[in-house]
Design a protein that fits this description.
Elements (H helix, E strand, L loop, with lengths): L16 H15 L2 H27 L1 H5 L4
Length: 70
Amino acid sequence: MAKKITSAPAAKGDIDFEKELWDVANELRAAVAENQYKDYVLSLLFVKHLSERYGVRKQENPAFFSGAEI
């Protein structure tokens, strides 16, 4: 009998960001009127954009973000 190869489960600290966003979007669809839905989704996308930009800047200049004197 062949064994099934399964991937190791993700650590508790790891978050599947796309899945989390999709789940939030599904919850909002039921609770928010169609004409207001874009306000919530655009806000979430803006926060995601800020998070990604922060990550890029932090990689470019780690000394600034660590609090070390230059």
